[in-house]
Amino acid sequence: MYFLYSILLSIWLAMMAPVLWYRAKFKGKELPGLGERLGQLPDALAHDGRVTLWLHACSVGEALSLQPLIDELVVRYPNARLVISTITNGGQKVAREKYGKIVGDGVFYFPVDEPPVVRHVFDKIKPAMLIVVDTEIWPNVLREASHRDIPVLLVNGRISAKSFRTYQHLRPFLAPVLANYKMLLMKDQVDVDRIVRMGAQPSRVRLTGNMKYDVSTKTITADQRDALDAALGVTSSPGPVIVAGSTHEGEEAALFAALKTIRSTDGLEATRILLAPRHIERANAVAALAIEHGFTLTRRTVVPPKMGADILLLDTLGELATAYQFADVAFVGGTLVPVGGHSIMEPALFGKAIVVGPRMQNFGNMADEFVEAGAMAQTERDAAVPGCADELAATITALLADPPRRATMGAAARDLFERSQGATKLTADAISEVLGRLGK
Fold first, then answer.
1. Looking at the DSSP assignment, which residues form a beta bridge with residue 267?
2. Which of 160, 224, 342, 345 would disulfide-bridge 334, Cβ 3.0–4.6 Å?
3. What whole-number distance in Å separates Cα of residue 330 and Cα of residue 312?
4. Contact call for residues 245 and 322 (beta carbons, < 8 A)
5. What is d(CA 80, CA 78) in angstroms, rounded to the nearest whole number?
6. Cβ-count burial of 381 within 10 angstroms (0-12 exposed, 13-18 middle, 19+ buried)?
7. Which residues pair with 277 in a beta bridge?
8. CA dihedral (413, 158, 69, 208) positive or negative
9. Contact at 8 Å (CB) between 195 and 178?
């Protein structure tokens, strides 16, 4: 089974090599960290005798969610060495900027899941434990860790509905792979049920909750808020601000159309959108779309900012949580298109009135709980259905025109957020339990 997987992965890599070469030579799109991805780690990552905890966070969201856990691990294991791997460039950037003072040079790109590469990385780092954030299943990494008696823990685990439909058919292959996890700590009871049905041993699966609930407003400084305000001119003009976070193609058009309708309402003529696309490489396309709709625009990366712009484009990584502080209404993206939604934690943390579209299947139970508690408004039409922008405009207009209702919704969101905290302690307790068995 592993042999077949490795052969197929090798074939895929061989097919991708010419594509990567072409992109690098003719498009100027180098693959950062290629050497690290192939196992050539710098000497700074060599084992230095301390207990090493290897944390893996694929992308930006996972890297940001590590904050409370890293803070807890530093307190519990002040003499341990933490190293962090990511797959995406954005995740790498966030990990270096956010945790550089703690891990130093211990940030690197996750290795290609080929046995020789994986073995080389384990030889270099010599981790006492591998902690994988969200749901990443790399068979050869897991197998090698098991052969070396290195425990692997999945934390903040989540199985989306879309992934589960695929994984169900792979149970005969996944069951022995999942057996290499020492513990699987899942966000939600639905996630627990799904991973067990995928073949995980029930005795190794625990419900711990979502560590994103444990993020504190203290992690966002006044300097960060002021810097973002100065760069976008958020408070330089009067009028409500809609913060639209993690948007995808198709959602910006609906938001811009909705904004025109909102601004035709008495008292809401100065409404603006602070918009953060999920993938910043789409920033130019989003900017062009805003101008096409007749709006003025300023961008986080353009100096000096255009004060009083209609659209404030956040084209940087790691600042969305800071941006939500400015929201009168927060719209969370990935919900008007078949993506399944993104986290509503940040706007809930700041007690904001939240609006989402119908596509929230990635957060099914959480979404239902927020709607039932009056902490979130959910529209019925997605971007593919006529009338989507009109419904979105009506929903947001009703909230902007009713400050007491917004305040009530925000308070309910914040209350749910606070009542759901505690996942980090449960996760850290599980890590301590396993390390304790190892005598670490």
1. none
2. 342
3. 14
4. no
5. 6
6. middle
7. 247
8. positive
9. yes
Torsion sign across C-alpha atoms 226, 96, 156, 432: negative
pLDDT in tens, 243-252: 999 999 999 9
Cα–Cα distance for residue pair 270/233, rounded to 1 Å: 14
Tokens representing 162 are: 């879309």
Token pair of 439 as six digits: 């005598």
Q: Where do we find the tokens 């098991």?
A: 146
Q: Residue 79 corresponds to which amino acid?
A: N
Per-residue pLDDT tens digits for 313-347 = 999 988 999 999 999 999 999 999 999 999 898 99
Res. 235: pLDDT tops 70: yes
When pLDDT is cut at 50, 70 and 90, the band that residue 372 belongs to is very high
Q: How far apart are CA 254 and CA 167, in angstroms?
A: 33
The whole-model pTM stands at 0.77
Q: Which residue has the tokens 């709980």?
A: 369
> Which amino acid, 187?
K
> Which pLDDT score, from 0 to 100, does residue 27 have?
55
Structure tokens at 435: 């390390």
> What span, in angstroms and rounded, lies between the C-alpha atoms of 400 and 228?
23
